[in-house]
């Protein structure tokens, strides 16, 4: 075998990630808030960019909203009771949140016992029934109930369904992990007399340094004595969503527009452009030319983002016409590849463009990704969920529908072959309790 070195020319094509291309890709991925922050940063860094005067911008903003007519009055005039909620991120209640997690940790035959456990929680998140009585009611062994309780106590929030504060805190320490042995000893052996013993005395009892005990006490201080409180605190923080796109009906026709009227309007600064044209200083000219080129790229990238999103919106109107006319039940399965072919863009471009963005429609607020749904046959999964919701809301008052009943209805009425477990998963996604819970639950 001959070894040696030689020169060889090879011609090949590859994509070069130029600054201009990188900027276009980044801006396409930004949602409204991210884009606003990015534009403000660019305005601060590039003297060639200038924001429109406040008065001029306010006039344009006023014209923008007046031209939108039906949308500005949507929350007031629409009879849909969920019109306000459609602008917020829905947060499920604690019991719904826990019930949704049961299917992730419990076997099918354990679900009923799990539901019985979370159905006997106090408002603070403690278990309000003895395990012996629960085992007797469910007709299972005490060991089986203890096994299921162990799994539930490690759901979110950790420590839920504990019998007392000590048990809740120990489970939370377990969830934290790391060096928590000393903190566990304090809770297990000194919880009752913790307020009466000094730091030095506690250190002697535990054969530890006062500084180590103090660190352990700080860990305990950061725990939640009432396990449900951590979840309730999270629930109190409501997220308001500003849609990136609006699809509405005007004169019987569906139209799409971008909701970017509140973002800073930018253009080339006449003062710095004039300085570029008249300056005799080579360094100044070089600097301003670089900034001028960057400003042009930014403006073109903004326009490219606007055109791409608008085309995607129009493609959605074309592909999901039934949804906009009839609602979620008529959503069709759709892939990004189909939309990419429709707008003559690459599939990855569509994927970047819809990332983290929302669209306001006559049926409410949805993520753009919602419209790219898989499904069964010619029906999208969201449509199936809407049918399940409709069946449950219209179920007889004297007979709640089990997941198996719903699966049979979907087969009889829609010709859909869906398993009971899939129905249960979709029902959990909708935050609807099981049939046993719904006997005492009335939809609003």
Q: Structural class, please?
A: alpha+beta
Strand percent estimate:
5-15%
Number of DSSP helical runs: 22
Helicity, as a percent range: 40-55%
> Which residues form runs of ≥5 with pLDDT under 50?
54-91, 440-444
The major β-sheet equals: 4 strands, mixed
Q: Give the assembly state of these chains.
A: single chain
Distance between the termini: 82 Å
Number of strands: 8
What is the ordering of alpha helices and beta strands? HHEHHHHHHHHHHHEEEHHHHHEEEEHHHH
| Spatial sequence of strands, sheet with the most strands | 3-2-5-6
Give the integer mean of the pLDDT values: 76
Number of spatially distinct domains: 3
Overall geometry comes to: flat
Rounded to an integer in angstroms, the radius of gyration calculated over CA atoms is 30 Å
Quick structural summary:
With 444 residues, the protein is an alpha+beta fold. The protein has helices at residues 19-29, 32-45, 54-68, 74-77, 94-105, 111-118, 131-138, 142-152, 165-176, 181-190, 199-206, 210-221, 227-235, 270-278, 282-319, 321-326, 336-343, 347-354, 381-393, 403-414, 420-429, 435-438; strands at 49-51, 245-250, 253-258, 266-268, 358-361, 364-367, 375-376, 379-380.
Written overview of the protein:
- With 444 residues, this protein is of the alpha+beta class.
- The protein folds into three domains: 19-79 and 242-371, no CATH class; 94-235, Orthogonal Bundle (Arc Repressor Mutant, subunit A), CATH 1.10.10; 375-438, Homeodomain-like (Arc Repressor Mutant, subunit A, Orthogonal Bundle).
- It has 22 helices and eight strands.
- It has helices at 19-29, 32-45, 54-68, 74-77, 94-105, 111-118, 131-138, 142-152, 165-176, 181-190, 199-206, 210-221, 227-235, 270-278, 282-319, 321-326, 336-343, 347-354, 381-393, 403-414, 420-429, 435-438; strands at 49-51, 245-250, 253-258, 266-268, 358-361, 364-367, 375-376, 379-380.
- The strands form three sheets. Strands 3-2-5-6 form a four-stranded mixed sheet.
- Helix 5 (94-105) packs antiparallel against helix 6 (111-118), helix 11 (199-206) packs across helix 12 (210-221) and helix 20 (403-414) crosses helix 21.
- The radius of gyration is 30 Å and the shape is flat.
- The termini are far apart.
């Amino acid at each position: 075998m001959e070894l040696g070195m030689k020169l060889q020319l090879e011609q090949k094509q590859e994509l070069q990630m130029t600054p201009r291309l990188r900027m276009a890709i980044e801006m396409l991925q930004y949602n409204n808030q991210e884009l606003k922050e990015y534009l403000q940063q660019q305005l601060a860094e590039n003297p060639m960019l200038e924001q429109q005067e406040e008065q001029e911008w306010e006039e344009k903003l006023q014209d923008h909203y007046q031209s939108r007519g039906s949308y500005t009055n949507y929350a007031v005039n629409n009879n849909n009771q969920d019109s306000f909620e459609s602008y917020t991120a829905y947060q499920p209640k604690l019991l719904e949140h826990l019930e949704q997690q049961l299917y992730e940790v419990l076997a099918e035959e354990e679900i009923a016992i799990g539901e019985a456990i979370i159905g006997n929680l106090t408002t603070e998140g403690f278990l309000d029934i003895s395990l012996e009585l629960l085992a007797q009611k469910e007709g299972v062994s005490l060991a089986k109930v203890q096994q299921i309780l162990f799994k539930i106590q490690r759901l979110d929030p950790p420590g839920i369904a504990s019998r007392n504060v000590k048990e809740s805190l120990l489970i939370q320490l377990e969830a934290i992990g790391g060096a928590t042995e000393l903190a566990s000893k304090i809770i297990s052996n000194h919880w009752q007399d913790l307020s009466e013993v000094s730091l030095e005395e506690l250190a002697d009892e535990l054969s530890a340094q006062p500084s180590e005990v103090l660190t352990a006490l700080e860990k305990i201080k950061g725990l939640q004595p009432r396990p449900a409180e951590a979840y309730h605190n999270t629930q109190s923080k409501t997220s308001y969503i500003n849609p990136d796109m609006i699809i509405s009906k005007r004169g019987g026709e569906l139209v799409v527009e971008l909701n970017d009227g509140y973002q800073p309007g930018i253009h080339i600064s006449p003062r710095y452009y004039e300085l570029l044209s008249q300056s005799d200083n080579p360094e100044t000219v070089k600097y301003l030319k670089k900034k001028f080129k960057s400003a042009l790229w930014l403006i073109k990238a903004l326009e490219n983002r606007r055109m791409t999103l608008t085309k995607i919106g129009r493609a959605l109107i074309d592909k999901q016409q039934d949804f906009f006319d009839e609602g979620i039940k008529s959503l069709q399965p759709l892939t990004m590849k189909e939309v990419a072919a429709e707008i003559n863009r690459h599939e990855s471009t569509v994927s970047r463009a819809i990332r983290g963005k929302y669209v306001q429609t006559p049926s409410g607020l949805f993520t753009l990704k919602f419209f790219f749904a898989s499904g069964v046959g010619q029906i999208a999964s969201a449509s199936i969920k809407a049918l399940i919701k409709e069946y449950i809301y219209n179920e007889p008052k004297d007979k709640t529908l089990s997941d198996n009943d719903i699966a049979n209805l979907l087969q009889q009425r829609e010709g859909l072959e869906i398993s009971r477990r899939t129905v249960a998963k979709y029902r959990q996604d909708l935050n609807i309790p099981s049939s046993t819970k719904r006997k005492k639950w009335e939809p609003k």
